[in-house]
Write a sequence for this structure.
């Protein structure tokens, strides 16, 4: 079964852009499955807080994502900000992973366990701790083990103080800055470990984004999340992730609990070559989070499979060009656009290329122009960049003048329409 993609402009589309969209619709996209892909020629404003009809989730906020493509299989209140509790330690871990990758920090570097780290996150705190001795020096490698496996609040504070000087600067200048670089626009951080503070807020969607990034970009460090125990200061502690011992292929990531946030978990597992990531938060019982996360993962593995929607470098549409020697530029996706679909078929998908345009000439081959978005119902299932497949040079003076006049007329028409 073959379908096309309709091209729209963002944040608005003109009559000219719609004509280009109709040209793009002539390009075939082979699916090879029983579902239906619709070419979208109108705006879709899908609800961001919906439940998949095939799954009944009990968690107040939840999301299930296929790691390779980023396909969202299920979401419920996924953009609601809540206290992330110890799940926020994933952000601290990522900052450290990134610093090591850049060469700013070494695994062998040693940081001192300050009195602040010891009192707020160590043995006197009564919270999850690595039990690092006050004023002792601990390597970054061991602190990461303590933070990830033992959920040590003292380990996180020591890492923050060692890298930034104090925890407040680490939260604002390192965690927040890095989160924005990764596209996490809503998350806010007030400390390094998720201990109760009104400034600690994350959504399950952004926790899922963070987990996916760690899994894909730091495989050498991700293995830490699957280690089942760690001993420090002669105290052996098991990994707090219940999925590691109860589900095939489970190898991460982090649990969390505070009175404000409830019980939550970021989990991941691989089965038959497919990796899924689940995030739940806001549950009232410690057993419920394990049950809910496992149930959601098993549902995903049982009911979905990966299909290629668009092959790598396959033409997917055209973008309108302003002032070029060609009036449009062909667009391709550098990587295959894959989406998770129900094994039984019947999924209704809507695909659209979204770009800000017209694109001003000159356009370089390989230049990112926009994204192709695929919706499942009202929710985005996958979003992938699209690039210019060819270079477009600057057009003649007459060509630029015609394009300028055309945009002026369209702008006047739009302004008049907005007053109606």
């Amino acid at each position: 079964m073959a379908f096309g993609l309709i091209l729209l402009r963002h944040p608005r589309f003109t009559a000219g852009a719609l004509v280009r969209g109709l040209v793009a619709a002539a390009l075939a996209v082979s699916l090879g499955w029983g579902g239906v892909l619709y070419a979208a020629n109108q705006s879709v404003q899908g609800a961001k807080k919906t439940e998949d009809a095939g799954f009944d989730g009990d968690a107040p906020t939840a999301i299930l994502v296929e790691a390779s493509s980023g396909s969202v299989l299920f979401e419920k209140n996924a953009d609601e900000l809540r206290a992330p509790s110890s799940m926020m330690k994933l952000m601290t871990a990522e900052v450290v992973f990134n610093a090591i990758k850049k060469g700013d920090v070494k695994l062998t570097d040693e940081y001192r366990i300050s009195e602040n780290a010891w009192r707020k996150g160590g043995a006197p705190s009564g919270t999850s701790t690595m039990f690092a001795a006050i004023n002792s020096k601990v390597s970054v490698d061991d602190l990461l083990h303590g933070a990830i496996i033992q959920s040590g609040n003292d380990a996180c504070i020591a890492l923050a103080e060692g890298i930034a000087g104090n925890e407040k600067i680490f939260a604002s200048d390192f965690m927040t800055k890095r989160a924005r670089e990764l596209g996490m626009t809503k998350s806010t951080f007030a400390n390094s470990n998720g201990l109760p503070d009104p400034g600690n807020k994350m959504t399950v969607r952004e926790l899922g984004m963070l987990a996916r990034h760690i899994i894909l970009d730091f495989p050498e460090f991700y293995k830490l999340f699957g280690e089942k125990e760690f001993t420090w200061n002669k105290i052996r502690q098991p990994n707090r992730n219940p999925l590691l011992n109860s589900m095939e292929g489970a190898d991460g990531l982090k649990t969390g609990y505070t009175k404000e946030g409830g019980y939550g978990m970021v989990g991941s597992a691989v089965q038959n070559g497919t990796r899924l990531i689940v995030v739940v938060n806001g549950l009232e019982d410690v057993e419920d989070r394990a049950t809910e996360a496992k149930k959601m993962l098993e549902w995903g593995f049982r009911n979905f499979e990966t299909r290629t929607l668009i092959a790598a470098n396959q033409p997917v549409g055209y973008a309108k060009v302003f002032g070029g020697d060609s009036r449009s530029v062909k667009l391709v996706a550098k990587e295959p656009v894959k989406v998770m679909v129900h094994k039984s078929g019947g999924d209704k998908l809507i695909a659209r290329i979204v770009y800000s345009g017209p694109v001003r000439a000159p356009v370089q081959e390989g230049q990112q122009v926009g994204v192709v978005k695929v919706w499942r119902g009202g929710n985005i299932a996958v979003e992938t960049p699209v690039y210019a497949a060819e270079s477009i040079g600057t057009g003649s003076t007459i060509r630029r003048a015609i394009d300028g006049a055309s945009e002026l007329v369209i702008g006047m028409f739009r302004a008049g329409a907005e007053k109606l």
Notes: DSSP finds ten helices and 21 strands in the chain. The CA atoms of residues 50 and 76 lie 5 Å apart. The two ends are 42 Å apart (CA to CA). The first strand starts at residue 2 and ends at 3.
